[in-house]
Amino acid sequence: MSMNVSVRKERRANRTRRRLKRPVHTERLRLSVFRSAKHIYAQVIDDEQGRTVAEANSKALAAQGNKTEQAKEVGKLLAERAVAAGVKSVVFDRGSFRYHGRVKALAEGAREGGLEF
Description:
Blueprint: H1 5-21, E1 29-35, E2 40-46, E3 51-57, H2 58-61, H3 67-84, E4 90-93, H4 102-113
Parallel strand pairs: 1-4
Antiparallel strand pairs: 1-2, 2-3
């Protein structure tokens, strides 16, 4: 029996999030990434309070260059906003996306911007 694509994608995302929360509950917030065909979105989420602490995306940034370079800039901007909000350490939640290409570039940009994960 084959499942539809959205169900498989949701299962992959849930599997990733389960692994993030499994070891021990830490005080670190979650850096969540969403990648669409044109843009990339990232936000730092406080799951206990259910609120977004900082966010950045390539749509609002209007950065130049290819999509990978834009993702790196989004990561740097997100890190800058998160550090300004008092967040230093996060857990990287890639969702259903592989740690490769634009998702990896966003993570590297966030590390360069001062976030630890």
